[in-house]
Amino acid sequence: MPRPTKLTSALPVVALAILAGITYWLLQATLPKPQEPERPKEHAPDYFATNFSVSELDTTGTTQYRLTAISMVHYEDDEVSDLTKPAMRMFQPLRPTVTATSERGTVNGDVSIVNLYENAHILRVAGYGDPQMTADSEHFRILVNDDVIETEKPVKLQRGPSVMTGDGMNYNNATRVMKLFGTVRGQIAASDTLGTSSK
Is the residue at 3 inside a domain? Predict the structure, then answer.
């Protein structure tokens, strides 16, 4: 009877080693790869638009607000967009249209807060018993969901022939109530004190 050679004796060991290697490879191939750490977001532009326009509609499809700008640059870290020459128009049934403009501005990710900077101007056209009204400041903040425009900067308000100034302002477009804060000065025309509308 022939004696087993060294090669014959080693075959089972080699086969087991190969089997173990294949099993390890299959296990590694099926394991989920470790996730790379998420790259921190930078304050860098991730997209931009020219002749930017976005509108908000009510349940009937009627435009409530429209925000436009010559250009828009969006930043990925805080979801804020820089605007060049923005204009915000607010439409309400049976109310005069209100338009707010400036040289530059910002808008947050869900378009609930619009900031207007440099030569910020508000125009409420005459109509529905109200005279034309304008307001000028270096900054206006529009709280879109509340239908409010406010500023903490000096402001000049003109309503018809009446002119007033203050250190701050809050205007509720829904109720048409204007509030001036701080040192308030101005000239109120007789038509405003005796007229039918005080808003």
Answer: no
